[in-house]
Amino acid sequence: MPSIYITGVGMTPFGKRREPLGALIARAARQALRDAKLETVDALFVGVMNPEEFVGTGNTASVIADRLGLAGVPAIRVETASSTGAAVLHTGCAAIASGFYRRVLLVAGEKMTHLTTARVPRILAEMLDREERACGARMPALAAMITERYIREHRISLSHIQRIMAQVAIKNHYNGSLNPLAQFRQPITEAEYYASKLVSVPLRLYDCAPITDGAAAVVLTGEVTDIRIAGIGQSTDLLPLRLRSSLAAFRATRLAARRAYEMAGIHPEEIGFAEVHDAFTPFEIIATEDLGFFEPGKGGRAVEKGVTALDGPLPINPSGGLKARGHPVGATGLAQVVEVVYQMRGQVEPRRQVRSPALALAHSVGGLGTNNFVTILERADRARPLIAVRSPERLQPERPPHRPRPIQGVAPEGVIETFTIVHVPPEGFTPPLPLAIVRDARGEMVIARGEGLRYLKIGRRVFIERREGGFWFFPATVFEMARRRVQQLFRGRGRRG
Amino acid sequence: MPSIYITGVGMTPFGKRREPLGALIARAARQALRDAKLETVDALFVGVMNPEEFVGTGNTASVIADRLGLAGVPAIRVETASSTGAAVLHTGCAAIASGFYRRVLLVAGEKMTHLTTARVPRILAEMLDREERACGARMPALAAMITERYIREHRISLSHIQRIMAQVAIKNHYNGSLNPLAQFRQPITEAEYYASKLVSVPLRLYDCAPITDGAAAVVLTGEVTDIRIAGIGQSTDLLPLRLRSSLAAFRATRLAARRAYEMAGIHPEEIGFAEVHDAFTPFEIIATEDLGFFEPGKGGRAVEKGVTALDGPLPINPSGGLKARGHPVGATGLAQVVEVVYQMRGQVEPRRQVRSPALALAHSVGGLGTNNFVTILERADRARPLIAVRSPERLQPERPPHRPRPIQGVAPEGVIETFTIVHVPPEGFTPPLPLAIVRDARGEMVIARGEGLRYLKIGRRVFIERREGGFWFFPATVFEMARRRVQQLFRGRGRRG
């Protein structure tokens, strides 16, 4: 790992901001430059997820360079959906390590709150697979299906996962209440959590990160400072959720983490605290497992025991996380790094200061876990010197996962692999909307809309039918099975004759 | 300069393509991987300018990684408006030079032709300054104003520049007629050029690059191959045209070229041929001057003498350029590099093969010259060994240019710095639409809409007035001047009293 150091950071307050996108980014950037005691840099990297549709402007790298008085400086925009802020950091690391530049300014931001609550999810849905979108699935619906699968695989009851999710929300809102930059500054109670409306079973409103404006900035350098980038790792995954090797964990997080740990030459147990991508509360649980902090299925127990609390042995999201600090999609990945630096430098409010700030991790999820990043930072005065164990062989990507053939025609029978009931569906769909990922008789996976709510259970046998707009599933009753068998028999005869 | 080599290239035919964006990019990528004899890579960089608005999908890096069977491989999208393809190449160079990756796949593409001819310019206009957009200026209008200023500064007559522009169009269409991947495969005559409709005085339809679908791909490696990246340079400039240090040249090209030449340790005279960004025919002339091939104002003469023809001493755009090969905005910068590689390897049709293919340059313009790239490639067997003259000091950006204060209130008098008459204005504007950049009495620059066409001349004194929707200018007749003086006098008295 080449020597890459952080020499300046900046971040705006997150929330509903009146300033336009450029002003937000400029504010964070000026803070970071002032912090680095620099007036200019050799290059600029800009992370915004979708300025074209959120604010109606393009050419963002030039716009920001101009706005910062840096016209002339090379500037490039990078984007990886909701992990864009982390992609900016990793691109900046390569720029420094390449020797092309000695000091680079990284900025990331997003402006979202001025749009209607119908328009924002529509823009965010562009991150998803077309077929999964077409049947009415949006981010929360797919996150809910992951949650249902997670509790099934780890034999956790619905009421138990709800208690765990509530604990994550309560912890992150409490942390956010201590963070002056957070969008939500009020702690929440368990009663308030349960009173919040169901979005997509089992996710409630308090399980979902809010819509947020905000920006963050970092100055990287090759010269020694107090904070060093110890390791970086990134991985993609298949776009459609239904085709992935696991519906209850994120392979992209695991691969990214493995690469980052190897580059840093450390083990997960050495990490003192972490900022993880809790776009949905169960994602924080799954992330802490994918990152190797806890065994698969044990992340929830750790929350209940207070392990991940501010005063626990491994604080998770001391900033409040995406849940309470807010989630301006393009900014989040970089904001996590800024928070880590503030913690490492002891620049946060005393009640929010973690105890072991010398080695930390930031984890960012792009799309629905399709483009994830792990970044490991360390204080330069950390006692144990790092051992470089970087092995290019081990950094090679795994063999790409099997991608099944797309379904052709009707596959009459299948089994529910996971499901949800969407209570806040997109335009054109009526709540409650049952959705499921169904494995058909040939082993192919389809996403389908359901009829009726009573038969929703993982493992349940269902019939699948392709109608206009996608697949539908309905319960495989004895009568229905018999009727279809007879129908098939006649169809087969008709064809042969 | 670290050792960065090209080991594989691929490109789709350009034009109106039936395949969706993902299929186009996948086709170019598979060609490049096959050419490189590789099945996988360490990382993927994806250049698309605006897939969100052109084709309605986001999360493009993941989408393309998945589509190529590379899910798991790190993938990042980069964007710099219409120079996106070049930004991908430069980002890939840093990725190899950093040592993070040994082989990276770069892909770039755009799908545009399925949208209406009204919608495409609206999306492209998002690259421009808001105020310049607001008064009805689009890319061609601003390019036309640059052309008017160019001929004024170099004392070229309107009829002379038109002959030169015709020559550029004819040359590039001829080159394109020999290129099986080009969008336009028919040579054009001078008569056809003059018969094409006026878009924005003095630009005709045949001066403007078309709307195109297409994709290109390159595999970079740190291991020695037949083609080496010798130098790269990038520079931004102020977003508003009116505020730039020159209205008749591109500072961003000059800075980018200087950096690339220094990195490569060569002089412009050593370049054997070049692919330059002829989004508008006069841009090719200006580029060849900004790149140091010809003295300022002498680029047109070089075209007339056949210097830049296929069989001339310095062929420019042997591919047909953006003009004839086509301009899928995100793809173009990388397609230029693929063309250079085909030429260097002797893989083009014999009639299109340039004579000195050992050292070449690709030049890409982002937005209206706000984010420009220069890339120098050389054949590894080139006789003269390169001398590394890279000096980090000289690579520092120039001091950012002066950015004037925005206009406050009305500045009654000014002088036309440049102008155009738009014959194909955007929705809500009536042709012919006179536009001008006017310098007011305090030296501030405004873009303004005009009344009447007779008084349009650089250097003409005009009155400026702010009305709803921006500034307007109109001729400063003696009568009007007297009337305004009297009016001002009374206003002044009124205020004092």
Provide a quick synopsis of the model.
2 copies of one chain form a homodimer. With 497 residues, chain A is of the alpha+beta class. Chain A is 33% helix and 21% strand.
Question: Please, could you describe this protein's structure?
Answer:
2 copies of one chain form a homodimer. With 497 residues, chain A is α+β, with helices and mostly antiparallel strands. The first copy, chain A, folds into 2 domains: 5-115 and 208-395, Thiolase/Chalcone synthase (Peroxisomal Thiolase, Chain A, domain 1, 3-Layer(aba) Sandwich), CATH 3.40.47; 413-496, OB fold (Dihydrolipoamide Acetyltransferase, E2P). Chain A is 33% helix and 21% strand. Chain A has 16 helices and 16 strands. Chain A has helices spanning 21-36, 51-54, 60-67, 84-97, 119-124, 130-134, 139-153, 158-177, 190-195, 251-264, 281-290, 299-304, 321-325, 332-345, 392-395, 478-496, and strands spanning 5-11, 43-47, 75-79, 103-110, 198-200, 203-204, 214-221, 227-236, 273-275, 359-364, 371-379, 413-422, 433-440, 445-450, 461-467, 470-475. In chain A, the strands form 3 sheets. In chain A, strands 3-2-4-7-1-8-11-10-9 form a 9-stranded mixed β-sheet, sandwiched between helices. A 5-stranded mixed β-barrel of chain A has the order 12-13-14-16-15. In chain A, strand 13 and strand 14 (445-450) form a beta hairpin. The longest helix of chain A has 20 residues, at 158-177. The first copy, chain A, is globular and about 80 Å long. Residues 386-400 of chain A have low confidence and may be disordered. At the A-B interface, helix 3, strand 3, helix 4, strand 8 and helix 10 of A face helix 3, strand 3, helix 4, strand 8 and helix 10 of B.
